[in-house]
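Quick one:
INPUT:
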């Protein structure tokens, strides 16, 4: 496979499945040239949703056509409602109807949901056709578009059906983030903070020092966070492509986060918000278990609050709601729930959770969260005011 010659790119080294994450402002208008560089064929199925198509569909379609491709759209809904077998079926039906062949391309234009379901369709159609990621949300640009995880949800849990399937290239255009709704932007910052917590204390320090830049999408801050997150993700994926070891650290915040998404029927929180809440709960677990200091928890929680993410579990959630939802997590081994917990800023461990211990932690933490919300006197999901 040819590698895209780009000044600002991050390689994902996976032998014959290696590819580049190309990060360049305005690259969307040259997306056809990028596909030519990686050897894509003439027909391109653009999987997207109505919101993204309205914003960027015409530009992408024009760029592909000018480069000699024959693009067409496959529409799916916005949000988690599209991450189901029903919509996977719709995509596959469209590929069959259009007589897509093995050298044709599926291009995911959208956020993490679009990338996951489109990638799964590409992995299964004709036993695998080329796949390109063009992420348009912060969560997708720093996390979900990289690493080859594709799939859909099951009613009992998130991401239970899917495959590892690497893209030909990931094309990141920071300019598209300017049209991202503020809630989606803040949700993406949870994944950004996650990278500092799991692998890079210096990066976490940088985030603490640039909260205003994170909130305002500063041109001095955003390029750095995009590249650094992609570098960390690429390095971890290259060392453990199929999540048999080190790659599990990327799931920090996700064991509780996915449980919360299922508890809220994939409607109450968007993914990044649930991950931020999951990080708060999992750091609290780590401190309760004696794995990390109170300062680690305080620094992380303070940063999550400062960027405006929700901070408290729902008052009506009970221990068994959380525990039973976590039972469907992908990291369950021989019936035991394994969770990624921090030991310090920049380092985490995967540990088994003991039900009775976590029940005691939950009783303590849930009471503390309710007390915090009452004292503050407002919804913990409301963004903090800038000073």
């Amino acid at each position: 496979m040819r590698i895209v010659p780009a000044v600002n790119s991050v390689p994902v080294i996976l032998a014959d499945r290696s590819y580049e994450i190309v990060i360049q402002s305005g690259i969307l208008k040259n997306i056809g040239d990028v596909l030519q560089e990686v050897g894509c064929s003439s027909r391109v199925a653009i999987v997207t949703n109505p919101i993204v198509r309205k914003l960027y569909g015409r530009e992408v379609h024009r760029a592909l056509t000018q480069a000699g491709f024959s693009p067409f759209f496959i529409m799916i809904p916005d949000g988690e409602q599209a991450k189901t077998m029903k919509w996977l079926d719709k995509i596959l039906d469209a590929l069959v109807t259009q007589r897509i062949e093995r050298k044709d391309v599926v291009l995911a234009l959208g956020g993490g949901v679009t990338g996951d379901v489109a990638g799964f369709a590409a992995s299964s159609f004709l036993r695998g056709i080329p796949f390109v990621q063009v992420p348009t949300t912060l969560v997708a640009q720093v996390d979900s578009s990289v690493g080859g995880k594709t799939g859909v949800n099951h009613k009992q849990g998130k991401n239970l059906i899917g495959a590892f399937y690497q893209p030909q290239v990931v094309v990141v255009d920071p300019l598209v983030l300017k049209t991202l709704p503020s809630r989606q932007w803040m949700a993406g910052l949870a994944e950004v903070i996650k990278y500092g917590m799991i692998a890079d204390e210096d990066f976490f320090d940088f985030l603490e020092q640039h909260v205003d830049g994170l909130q305002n999408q500063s041109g001095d801050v955003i390029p750095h966070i995009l590249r650094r997150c992609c570098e960390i993700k690429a390095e971890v994926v290259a060392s453990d492509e199929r999540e048999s070891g080190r790659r599990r650290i990327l799931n920090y915040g996700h064991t509780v986060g996915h449980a919360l998404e299922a508890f809220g029927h994939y409607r109450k929180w968007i993914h990044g918000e649930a991950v931020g809440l999951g990080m708060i709960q999992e750091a609290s677990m780590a401190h309760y278990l004696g794995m990390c200091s109170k300062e680690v928890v305080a620094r992380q929680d303070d940063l999550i609050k400062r960027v405006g993410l929700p901070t408290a579990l729902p008052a009506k959630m009970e221990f068994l709601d959380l525990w039973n939802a976590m039972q469907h997590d992908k990291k369950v081994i021989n019936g035991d729930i394994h969770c990624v917990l921090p030991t310090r800023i920049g380092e985490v461990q995967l540990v088994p959770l003991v039900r009775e211990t976590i029940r005691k932690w939950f009783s303590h933490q849930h009471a503390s969260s309710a007390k915090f919300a009452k004292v503050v006197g407002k919804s913990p999901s409301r963004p903090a005011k800038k000073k």
